[in-house]
Design a protein that fits this description.
Elements: H1 11-18, H2 33-38, H3 43-57, H4 66-73, E1 78-80, H5 89-92, H6 101-132, H7 134-159, E2 171-174, E3 190-192, H8 193-210, H9 218-223, H10 227-240, H11 244-251, E4 288-292, H12 308-312, E5 324-326, H13 342-345, E6 348-350, E7 356-358, E8 371-375, H14 376-390, H15 396-409, H16 420-434, H17 441-447, H18 474-479
Antiparallel strand pairs: 1-5, 2-3, 4-8, 6-7
Helix pairs in contact: 3-6, 3-7, 6-7, 7-8, 8-10, 10-11, 10-14, 11-14, 14-15, 14-16, 15-16
Amino acid sequence: MKNKSKYIVILGLSMVLYSSCKRELLTPIPQTSVADVSAFSTPFRVSSQVLSLYATLKNGAFYGGRAVIYGDIRGEDFINITSNLVTSYDVWNLNPTNSATAVTGLWAQAYTTIDACNVFLDGMATTGTTVVGSALAANYIGEAKLIRALSYYTLLQYYARPFADGNGSKPGVPLRLTAIKGTGFSDLARSSVAEVYAQVIKDLNDAETALPLTNGTAYNNTTRAHRNTAIALKTRVYLSMQNYAAVITEANKIVSATPPFTATSGVAHALQTDITNVFKTPYTTTESILSMPMTTTAGDNPGTQNQLCYYYYTQSTAGGSAEFNLNPNGIIANTGWTATDKRRTSLIFTKSDNTKYVSKYTTPSPYTDYVPVIRYAEVLLNLAEARARTGATVDAQALLLLNAVRGRSDAGTVLAPATQTALIDAIMTERRIEFLGEGLRNGDLMRLLQTIPAKGAAPAKTPSDNGYIWPISSSELALNKLCTDN
């Protein structure tokens, strides 16, 4: 697959497909004669449609920023500064309403992305595969299915009960697998959590088979899906389902049995020796399995009040608004996180008043930091946790994996928990340190049915409390008579 350089190049063609149409349920419908007749008529147009899927995914309301931000601020490691509902004070406070910006915005963009994938898959079935050939078509279809899987998985993390609550029997989200091409498609009941997860896994399995082993360049291997992307995401999904045996099976495909842990096939994923390399130009390290690229081109960055730097960082040269600082009683206070750990010395910014901020994202407006979706470090810790939870003692490989992640930033510390419980606790602590500001905390709390701790003025939420999960978007409830609220 050739790199088309920047997703913004294809937005003009994407608008032909999406913006000229009316979506009955929150998503634009490709109803123009151009979309119906010629959007898949040449190899360039087909390729452009693939890139448009990534452009839709990386919208600021979704994986351009907010999907990651919400995953952080629902947890206990951030303190809200501005009390601004537009910038997610209600999300942090765990009390957003059906019509809240976060609730309606994430839902709409997720389903816009899903429908774009469905439109693309329909187009490939009718025209596109013939135009580009079966081999390239398989690659493209794999990308679409992976993006659809990631979108549905993300919806489950906010709008549905965790899989562990009833083994997936609770209401999930409406499972739309066909393109919206006219009226009469609004009414669709919510599938169960298990049914949606099953579709996510099916899409990722299909993607694993269809995607290329490598996309040829470091840029494309970071910003477009390949086989190992699908495998890595499956380790996250299965962890959310507490299917630890499946996590181990998937992770073993791309993690060597012994240190230094690397992927032995496909893209040669490995930890960076220096973690700061992941978060600076060119952002295309072998650790970065999937990231959303941003540029200075108008429309090719997160947009107003969506950017990670805007929310988390504060320096006049960057223009960060500092919507959230680090909770002094959160993970930053953990005594096991040593003062010499590079994640503390280089990825935390301390102001003169001693307030602390995440400094993984520091580029000034228009905020062109790449947004990390999944890193190899997560695959290692997913595997470590799965192994730790399936044994009865301190699993030797789990301990090696844990120390591989800790050791690259804190070489002076070797963790040696004496019991299985202590090992699991150490892995969970390491996840909070390693992925601070990367959106994983909410999912880690909810998949284990843990209480979301109190922070600042925000109260704790137990799994049975109202607000543990989000309400369904008011826009969906207004249009979809079969959709029930949480």
